[in-house]
User: Which sequence fits this backbone?
């Protein structure tokens, strides 16, 4: 029983002292007790927050990701008149806007 307790304690110490877990993404902390989920995309890929900012600039509000793969990121949101709109971005650095996603037709 003592061996099991010391094994659990040593595993807990190992996991709590591994800074590599936070650097690779996942649960992060701001140093003030607030934790949030953040995963950094691989180098050369489009960041979701960048795509949402570009959608906002294009007039699409309250956007959400409806499709994401190695090639594209598609967001759906509302325009100023309240109609649903979709916008697609290439999943490469810079998030270039893709043609053909207007009115929900990819």
Assistant:
């Amino acid at each position: 029983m003592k061996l099991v307790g010391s094994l659990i304690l040593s595993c807990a110490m190992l996991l709590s002292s591994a800074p590599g877990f936070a650097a690779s993404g996942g649960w992060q902390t701001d140093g003030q007790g607030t934790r949030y989920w953040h995963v950094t995309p691989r180098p050369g890929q489009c960041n979701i927050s960048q795509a949402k900012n570009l959608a906002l600039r294009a007039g699409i509000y309250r956007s959400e990701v409806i499709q994401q793969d190695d090639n594209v990121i598609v967001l759906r949101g509302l325009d100023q008149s309240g109609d649903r709109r979709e916008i697609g971005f290439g999943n490469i650095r810079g998030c270039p806007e893709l043609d053909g996603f207007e009115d929900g037709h990819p």
Residues 18 and 98 are 40 Å apart (CA to CA). The longest strand covers residues 61-68. The chain is about 25% helix and 30% strand.
